[in-house]
Automatic annotation (TrEMBL), chain A:
Membership in a protein family: Belongs to the GATS family.
Record key words, sorted: Cytoplasm, Phosphoprotein, Ubl conjugation
Domain CASTOR1 N-terminal: 9-69
Domain called CASTOR ACT: residue spans: 75-141, 261-310
The species this protein was found in: Scleropages formosus
GO process terms (BP): negative regulation of TORC1 signaling
GO CC aspect terms: cytosol
Alphabetical list of PANTHER family matching this protein: CHROMOSOME 1, WHOLE GENOME SHOTGUN SEQUENCE (PTHR31131), CYTOSOLIC ARGININE SENSOR FOR MTORC1 SUBUNIT 1 (PTHR31131:SF3)
Protein's recorded name: Cytosolic arginine sensor for mTORC1 subunit 1
UniProtKB/TrEMBL annotation, chain B:
Localisation: Lysosome membrane
One annotated GO biological process: positive regulation of TORC1 signaling
The protein's name in its UniProt record: Missing oocyte, meiosis regulator, homolog (Drosophila)
A Gene Ontology cellular-component term: lysosomal membrane
Pfam assignment, any one: MIOS_a-sol
Gene name linked to the record: MIOS
Length: 321, 747
């Protein structure tokens, strides 16, 4: 297995819902006018709490300073596991499940905080740039590690594990068991030919920026049966969308791609209080049992909470909760 | 083809088997037939593609929306079966025009659907098993990006998904025509941008994946060979060299050797704009055509002479050039599958141009003066043709030298004049040269023609050797005598000059023999023998023997092939009178210019001239230099003679006229003269032989002479005349002892 350290240098930010108007212009530019920006990594996720925006430095420059924008101080790097044809297992489980044992658990043991971002195309594991040497130390036994430089993959020389090995410097906190919440709405994970993005522009703008205005009326006494969750990402030219079936109905059926099985997913939100960025082992906590049961999952971290998506078919898959 | 057709950029594909059909793909598929213009001119709807060809639209297929790539079925039948890769990753089989082929009907509309929808970037039919169709798709986290479909496979009932759950824009997809189970799945969690089957083995597939090129071996799908690179687009195998592969990234083309699949064997110069297509010419080895966005030129890289070096770090040379098939931008191009170097290009507005890349012409002279040039697959040999006696064009000097070398030209050291005959006997300048050398050399090498008198005159040797110009300069004690015509008893008024040097000059001119005898008669007889009647008559006349001159002319008129007009000339001569105001004189001086023979013109000029004023003879340029010089030595005073010889010498030097060697001898002057001769003719052979005779003088050491000699030796080498070269070297070492003994090559 290969682990690629991607070139993107990322910022994790949160836009307060009431401040969205300040950011609509840069967001529209970043999403629809790709030729006008150098941004190559953009992920926008709407939750009931906020809009979590993860984007590279070039994209970050487009954002205005505002009291509504919260920025996590660190620079984050994206890791990507590439199976590289050496199919190690016949397991059909993919996504976070696949990398739970090899990446997430070892990093948790070394107290490296991770920010997960699954897309239609792949899973990104975001780590802080300052943790990179620990990450490399931790994972180099399991992986051939490459760093992407100018589009080329350059092997990262193996570090001497015993010499210069540095712990993250944090005390191992006893794993907190966070409350989880599983809303009833079902989600689908989809993609889109970037050429047809203009065709769905109005719908996308509507869903992204005006969703609350129309829905709050009908769901004012919002119970926890349904939770607003919509994620759009445009990374290296690939589009990925996660939305519930209600939102999906607003899009023209023949433009969005998904699996031919038409699989639907249930979401599990982790955390009762905002989780913060320093606690480690949350993803590991969730993903380990999934991996043990060989259950496919998506995992999307946001500024406040983590979200795991698991496939709806097969009742036994929910038993882990 | 890995272009998306969502925009307006049309691509073009030639039918693999029907050499007159091609398809333009943009939002729809249009089938065209290409024909020569003559046969279709009158018909409507014909689009002219070039001066000679035109295309007719045969069919349009707009059944398949969201086309991303198209690949033409590689077998002869069904004829117009196409695989179309769509934006959602589905591959649809479709056809153009009507086909009554049952197999085609069965396959038409068949769809191959991946588990997870995403763009289909590329398609490639297996050239060996035409049921296998490889599709390259974009990345999906859980799915494979290279799917190999078997187009003959039936709908798989064991598929996990009931057909009613398929939510894709498949339209009224017939259940029986949808295939969801690929034969092979490769490249999990990766993206495939380009694909091509390797001709080495039916089960080897080369794929441009995300940031690497991979070779999948279907015999063992868990393994793959790969190399990390950015150049992953447009992978294509050289049809003439199956280990050579081209791929590209943005503006750069990388050429790979699959036997050394670690890094590109070479990368082509980077283009400022991103490339859109790279294709090997199927009809010409090692020719790669590339196209960039917004460009009206196709750039060609000729790697014909650059077989990929293995284990050699030096980059092979490639010849790069551009061709411009049309004025507008080129959207795409396609090489014709069989017509040599032919392509059709299509512009963004669908204008099409039929274009043939003209091959560079390479040209080579052989050392035997034949010329050869190559253009495309044609080789032209242009040899000199001897058209018998009426050779319209004079042979090239190289041809002449080669023939002369074969006839041992220059090697006759005894009868030196004979070298002129060996040279072909048709060049008056060579004749003069070799006769001059013939007359000079006995003086130079006295032991060859032993003669008491000459031995005594040993000190004259160098003078003789340095030409008449120097001889007459050294002249002293000139006497003059008044001579009259041999048949006249009157005291003549013709003044003739004598001196030892003048006699020597006459001898070098060949007029008189050796010894004290100054009789011109032997010379006249030899001229008669050669049938040079006019010249002999003139020489007799210049010796004031008018009766002998008349006799010669009569003889000439009565000889075989003789010219009867010579009798008329004799008649005119016989009327000669000294009377200054006679009618004869008047008529002779005015009519003589109409005579064709320069010698007859000179003769009458002499007869009608005032004493001491002989310009009519001296400047009659077609009279041989030796005769004019001999004449001058007889009739010009010392001052006149010296001035005349100087003037003539300069004239000869400037013209590079070998007759002038008589004047210059084998001196530095002579080398100057020879230099302009070589400049004019390139005849280093004559120059070498001539100047070698000058040994052991300074002339041989002259760098110009050494240069001629070396060039002549190289020529002999080039002609593979090894024996002639050896002979020449021996000859040279005899004449020029200073020339280095040549090393023996032993093997």
């Amino acid at each position: 297995m290969d682990l690629h350290i991607l070139e993107h240098r990322l910022k994790v930010t949160s836009i307060a819902k009431q401040g969205l108007f300040v950011f609509t212009h840069p967001l529209i530019k970043l999403i629809f006018l790709r030729s006008r920006t150098r941004c190559k990594f953009l992920s926008l996720t709407e939750t009931p709490e906020d809009f979590t925006l993860v984007l590279d430095e070039e994209g970050f420059k487009e954002l205005p300073c505002s009291e509504y924008l919260q920025v996590e101080d660190s620079m984050w790097l994206a890791l990507n596991v590439v199976s590289n044809g050496h199919a190690s297992s016949s397991s059909q489980a993919v996504g976070v499940t696949k990398i739970a044992k090899s990446v997430i658990a070892p990093l948790a043991e070394q107290h490296v905080s991770v920010f997960m971002l699954s897309t239609y195309q792949t899973d990104f594991i975001l780590v802080r740039e300052k943790d990179l040497s620990v990450v490399i130390d931790t994972l180099q036994e399991e992986f051939n590690i490459y760093r992407e430089v100018g589009g080329e993959c350059v092997p990262v020389p193996s570090q001497d594990v015993h010499n210069g090995f540095q712990k993250n410097g944090k005390e191992a906190t006893k794993a907190t068991v966070h409350p989880v919440l599983s809303p009833l709405n079902k989600f689908c994970v989809m993609s889109l030919d970037p050429d047809t993005l203009p065709t769905i522009a109005t719908t996308l703008i509507d869903v992204l920026f005006y969703s609350s205005s129309c829905k709050d009326a009908s769901h004012s006494s919002q119970d926890l049966d349904c939770v607003k969750f919509f994620s759009f990402s445009l990374i290296d030219g690939y589009i990925s969308l996660v939305m519930d079936t209600e939102a999906q109905r607003q899009f023209p059926a023949d433009l969005l791609f998904t699996s031919s099985s038409g699989e639907l997913w249930r979401m599990v939100r982790i955390g009762g209080q905002p989780l913060g960025f320093d606690e480690c082992g949350i993803v590991a906590q969730i993903s380990q049992p999934l991996a043990n049961s060989d259950i496919s999952a998506y995992y999307i971290s946001t500024f406040s909470f983590d979200h795991a998506l698991v496939i709806t078919t097969g009742r036994q898959q929910h038993s882990w909760v | 083809c890995s272009l998306g057709y969502g925009g307006s950029k049309p691509d073009i594909l030639w039918s693999p088997h029907h050499v007159d059909r091609y398809v333009i793909c943009d939002s729809e598929l249009s089938l065209y037939r290409i024909e020569s213009l003559g046969s279709t001119e009158a018909k409507a709807g014909v689009i002219q593609l070039s001066e000679e060809t035109a295309a007719t639209l045969l069919a349009i297929n707009s059944d398949t929306p969201y086309m991303k790539c198209v690949a033409w079925y590689p077998k002869h039948e069904p004829e117009c079966l196409l695989a179309v890769g769509q934006a959602n990753g589905r591959v649809v089989l479709t056809s153009l025009g009507q086909s009554h082929n049952s197999k085609c009907k069965e396959l038409m509309g068949k769809e191959f659907v991946p588990k997870h929808a995403r763009q289909c970037n590329t398609l490639s039919w297996n050239p060996a098993d035409s049921n296998w169709l490889a599709a390259g798709l974009d990345k999906h986290r859980a799915d494979f990006s290279v799917l190999i479909w078997d187009i003959s496979s039936k709908y798989a009932p064991e598929a996990t998904v009931p057909p009613e759950k398929i939510r894709l824009p498949s339209g009224d997809a017939d259940v029986g025509t949808v295939v969801t189970k690929p034969l092979y799945e490769l490249g999990q969690n990766d993206a495939c941008l380009s694909l091509c089957w390797l001709p080495r083995d039916q089960k080897l597939l080369l794929a441009g994946m995300h940031r690497n090129l991979a070779i999948f071996d279907l015999r063992n799908t868990s393994q793959k060979m790969f190399v990390n690179t950015k150049a992953i687009q447009g992978v294509t195998v050289d049809p003439f060299f199956h280990d050579r592969v081209a791929s590209f990234f943005e503006g750069q083309v990388a050429i790979w050797d699959l036997r050394k699949f670690e890094k590109p064997v070479l990368t082509l110069s980077e283009q400022p704009k991103p490339l859109t297509k790279v294709a090997w010419c199927p009809t010409r080895a090692g020719l790669l055509a590339t196209l960039t966005r917004d460009s009206n030129v196709v750039r060609l890289y000729d790697m014909q002479h650059a077989p990929t070096p293995i284990g050699d770090e030096t980059e092979p040379t490639i010849i790069e050039r551009s061709v411009q098939p049309c004025e507008s931008f080129i959207s795409s191009f396609a090489w014709h599958p069989s017509a040599q170097n032919r392509m059709v290009v299509v512009s963004p507005n669908r204008a099409m141009t039929d274009f043939t890349v003209f091959e560079r012409i390479s040209l080579a002279w052989s050392s035997t003066s034949s010329l050869m040039w190559a253009c495309g697959r044609h080789l032209y040999d242009c040899a000199e043709e001897r058209t018998g006696s009426e050779a319209a064009v004079e042979s090239d000097i190289a041809t002449k030298m080669r023939a002369r070398a074969q006839s041992r030209y220059g090697h006759d050291t005894v009868q030196v004049w004979r070298n002129y005959v060996l040279a072909g006997g048709d060049d008056p300048q060579l004749k003069s040269l070799w006769y001059t050398l013939h007359y000079i050399l006995p003086f130079q090498c006295p032991y060859l023609t032993l003669d008491q008198e000459q031995k005594q005159q040993g000190n004259k040797q160098t003078v003789v050797y340095s030409g008449i110009k120097n001889i007459v300069k050294s002249s002293s004690g000139t006497t003059e005598s008044r001579r009259s015509w041999s048949d006249s008893d009157r005291q003549g008024d013709v003044v003739r000059y004598h001196s030892e040097e003048r006699s020597l000059a006459l001898r070098l001119c060949g007029w008189i023999g050796r010894g004290p005898d100054v009789d011109v008669e032997p010379f006249l007889r030899s001229l008669e023998q050669e049938g040079e009647w006019e010249r002999a008559a003139a020489v007799a006349l210049f010796n004031l023997d008018i009766r002998r001159a008349i006799q010669i002319l009569n003889k000439g008129a009565s000889s075989e092939k003789g010219d009867l007009n010579l009798n008329v000339v004799a008649m005119a001569l016989s009327g000669h009178t000294d009377e200054k105001s006679s009618l004869w004189r008047e008529m002779c001086s005015s009519l003589r210019l109409q005579l064709r023979s320069p010698y007859l013109r000179a003769s009458f000029a002499f007869l009608t001239s005032e004493p001491g004023a002989y310009d009519g003879v001296l400047y009659e340029s077609r009279v041989a230099v030796r005769d004019r010089v001999a004449f001058a030595c007889m009739f010009l005073s010392d001052t006149q003679l010296s001035r005349y010889i100087d003037k003539l010498t300069n004239e000869m030097k400037e013209a590079g006229n070998l007759e002038g060697i008589l004047l210059t001898g084998l001196t530095k002057d002579g080398v100057d003269l020879m230099e302009s001769y070589v400049d004019r003719t390139g005849d280093v052979q004559t120059a070498s032989f001539c100047m070698l005779k000058g040994s052991p003088g300074e002339v041989v050491k002259d760098p110009r002479v050494q240069c001629w000699i070396e060039n002549y030796r190289n020529l002999l080498d080039a002609w593979r005349f090894w024996h002639k070269r050896a002979e020449f070297d021996i000859h040279r070492s005899k004449l020029d002892p200073s020339s280095k003994p040549l090393a023996q090559a032993r093997s």
